[in-house]
Amino acid sequence: MNDLKPCPFCGHDAKIEMCNLRVYDKNVSTTVIRADWEVRCTACFTSKSRCSEYALDNENHFHTLIDGRSEAITRWNKRANETIDISAENGNNNMTNG
After folding, report:
1. CA–CA distance, 7 with 45 (Å, rounded to integer)
2. CA 49 to chain centre
3. How far apart are CA 96 and CA 84, in angstroms?
């Protein structure tokens, strides 16, 4: 999902970008990469951000552990009269954010 709603405060367009990238060695067989994703209004600079976490194993297989990009988009697009179900994103079955 890449469709961003207009800014809820000023109505201008928003964009998403990676604003920070960090590489960690979690153990000898996996490299962990963390990336911060930020959705930001192009006019008033209101923003929502979330962190993604990826793993790169010794066989160069890339795995998404936490999809912060999708979560940032979902949270940006949420409006006050809506609730979102983030259970699939966090691995929980009964969590909602209203």
Report:
1. 9
2. 6
3. 6
Strands (E), the chain: 14-27, 30-41, 47-57, 62-66, 84-85, 96-97
φ, ψ (nearest 5 deg) of residue 54: -125, 155
Residue holding tokens 């367009």?
13
According to DSSP, the β-strands at 84-85 and 62-66 are unpaired
Residue type, 84: I
**Count of other CB atoms within 10 angstroms of residue 6:** 14
State the virtual CA torsion across 78, 79, 82, 83 in degrees, nearest 10.
40
The pTM is what? Answer: 0.74
Looking up tokens 């194993």 gives 57
For the stretch 40-72, pLDDT in tens is 999 999 999 999 999 998 888 999 999 999 999
DSSP lists the bridge partners of residue 24 as 32
